[in-house]
Write a structure and sequence with these properties.
Helices cover 54% and strands 16% of the residues. The chain has 190 residues and is an alpha+beta fold.
Length: 190
């Protein structure tokens, strides 16, 4: 009989029978709780991170196999620096700092190797997230400055949305006026 593959992303060690997993497994005829328990057992070291999981169900035998993927490099970096998310203003602000050894540890966890290519990929991800390497801990002054930049960016975005909304309303009024004028012109022609 055929195999069915179900791809889901779960929080490490916290999979449940709730959507998306439960409804996808229901028609496959396997014991959902067994699958959930197996996923949680295999992902418990990755607690707090989103982990891709592939459940391969043998539809005839009603058995399953699991393939647990690796979390994104960004999730590994955030876990290592202890931050909730990356920086929105990279190049200006930073959310944390890693040592060279921590970067190698992340490269080994993600790629299984800490060769130059793998380490360079992790460093590039760090750079785009506002995580520095070897510059020391983030100071309170840097945290305050980052909050200020974040607030300014949010205000600018809100102002831009308001401006777009006003322009859209003005365009709507103008097109209504044009439609009205063209209808009057048609009446006069008749």
């Amino acid at each position: 009989m055929a195999e069915q593959t179900i791809d889901v992303v779960v929080e490490g060690g916290k999979a449940t029978a709730a959507p998306p997993l439960g409804p996808a497994l229901g028609p496959a005829g396997v014991n959902i709780q067994e699958v959930v328990d197996a996923i949680n057992d295999k992902t418990k070291e990755l607690a707090g991170m989103k982990v891709p999981v592939k459940v391969i169900v043998d539809m005839g035998k009603k058995t399953f196999k699991l393939e647990v993927g690796k979390p994104p490099a960004s999730a590994l970096i955030l876990k290592e620096v202890g931050a909730q998310k990356g920086c929105g203003t990279t190049g200006t602000d930073r959310v944390g700092d890693l040592t060279e050894e921590q970067v190698k540890k992340i490269a080994r966890a993600k790629f299984g190797s800490d060769d130059e290519t793998c380490v360079s990929q992790i460093k590039g991800t760090c750079r785009s997230m506002g995580v520095t390497i070897g510059q020391g801990a983030v100071t309170e002054e840097e945290k305050k400055l980052a909050e200020q930049h974040k607030k300014e960016a949010e205000e600018a975005a809100a102002g831009e949305e308001k401006k777009e909304g006003e322009e859209g309303a003005a365009e709507g009024e103008a097109s209504e006026g044009e439609e009205g004028a063209s209808e009057e012109g048609k009446k006069e022609e008749s």
